[in-house]
Design goal:
The longest helix is centred in the middle third of the chain and has 30 residues, at 64-93. It is elongated and about 65 Å long. With 186 residues, it is mainly α. The protein has one domain (23-177). The chain contains eight helices and no strands.
């Protein structure tokens, strides 16, 4: 599978009045910062109502979906911090300076980490129904917050959304198959 080289949601770094930083994105980053501090098990209970409703909390600690959600949140927070640092460098040192070039590279690297986390989230099958629901709800929360996923303009098997749907369908099918096998053995 080909992955996007860049993330479409990287906001502009010019902080002038002509191109202000999107306050919705900043609000989301602030929310993500708070959520990333919470442990993976707690994150599942706080951020994902479906997981909180499951009496067996083992899903929140064993399903990779919850760790991937926490990883994505942490990557977004780190990316937001380097965007802020790049904005500051541009304001203090001017475009094209070595300091700005270095800040730009850090921003690009952080964007790559976010992109990788996005793709892991889209291509790693959850192992519980709570995990499937959590990933799908989380994907909508990201978009509701004004963020985008990588290659959102790619239609078909190479696109992030296509991969997410295919992975979630495969996870559900595996869970159905696993529960059918348990019923037959009982």
């Amino acid at each position: 599978m080909t992955q996007a080289d860049s993330m479409l949601s990287t906001p502009p770094t010019n902080t002038s009045a002509i191109n202000p930083v999107d306050p919705t994105r900043r609000g989301f980053i602030t929310l993500a910062a708070g959520a990333s501090i919470i442990s993976v098990g707690s994150l599942a209970a706080v951020a994902m109502p479906v997981a909180a409703a499951i009496p067996n909390t083992e899903a929140a600690t064993t399903d990779p979906a919850f760790a991937l959600i926490a990883e994505k949140l942490a990557a977004d927070v780190a990316h937001g911090e380097v965007i802020d640092a790049q904005d500051e460098a541009e304001r203090d040192h001017g475009y094209g300076s070595p300091v700005v070039q270095e800040a730009w590279q850090r921003c690009s690297d952080a964007c790559g980490v976010v992109n990788e986390a996005d793709w892991r989230l889209a291509t790693t099958p959850p192992t519980t129904l709570a995990g499937v629901a959590a990933v799908l709800r989380f994907a909508n929360e990201i978009e509701d917050g004004g963020m985008e996923w990588p290659a959102t303009d790619t239609v078909g098997p190479e696109g992030w959304h296509y991969q997410l749907r295919a992975t979630m369908a495969a996870a559900i099918e595996a869970l159905i198959k696993g529960s059918a096998g348990k019923a037959v053995r009982s």
